[in-house]
Design goal:
Shape: globular
Radius of gyration: 16 Å
Number of strands: 5
Distance between the termini: 28 Å
Number of helices: 7
Largest sheet: 5 strands, mixed
Strand order of the largest sheet: 1-2-3-4-5
Structural class: alpha+beta
Strand content: 15-25%
């Protein structure tokens, strides 16, 4: 399917972040809302995922990240389940104002820890930008938004797993640097 996509470079995003860092907020959701409010304007809207995003192209983004199919029922079930935990888990999207399509997404969660005097760590993953919109600053903006939310939330660390070839992108986008090796086991689950 050939989709039209209006894309533009994200302008002045770092100065917006500098100003927003000064504000103080309590919960992850209010921090997210505040940060995103500061980024309105231009050709893109950065906001939290909405139920209607299923019809705006959200499911079509995921296979551009990994093998994935997402039925309307599964999307709705996950959306409502995650909404119960919105102070700790958020999915952000970038919507193209011209087409109304979701052209990028990132997901993060805040993990309260026992170490670091009860501090928190922000983990992010599932960053994907529509193939037709890559190279226009959308992925960079999403990573910077999450890094800012991490700072405003008072997290002592913001981290993600990444493929080696993407390390330069993450370092340039938000100063993330390789720290340790990530390990994983993928369980075979019944259908």
């Amino acid at each position: 399917m050939n989709k039209a996509c209006v894309c533009s470079k994200v302008r002045n995003i770092s100065s917006s972040f500098h100003i927003l860092i000064m504000m103080s907020v309590e919960s992850c959701k209010s921090i997210t809302d505040e940060v995103l409010k500061g980024l309105s304007g231009g050709k893109h809207i950065y906001r939290t995922l909405e139920l209607g995003d299923y019809d705006k192209g959200f499911p079509e983004l995921l296979p551009q990240l990994t093998a994935s199919t997402l039925s309307r029922e599964v999307f709705a079930r996950q959306f409502h389940e995650l909404a119960k935990h919105q102070d700790l888990i958020q999915t952000l999207v970038c919507e193209d104002r011209g087409t109304g399509r979701v052209v990028g997404t990132i997901r993060f969660f805040v993990e309260p820890k026992y170490i670091h005097n009860g501090g928190s760590v922000l983990h992010f993953e599932d960053l994907v930008v529509d193939n037709a919109c890559r190279g226009h600053g959308i992925g960079t903006a999403l990573v910077k938004i999450v890094a800012l939310i991490s700072q405003k939330r008072g997290c002592y660390k913001c981290l993600a797993d990444a493929r080696k070839e993407l390390l330069p992108f993450y370092e340039k986008a938000a100063g993330l640097k390789p720290k340790e090796v990530s390990i994983a086991v993928y369980n075979e689950l019944p259908n």
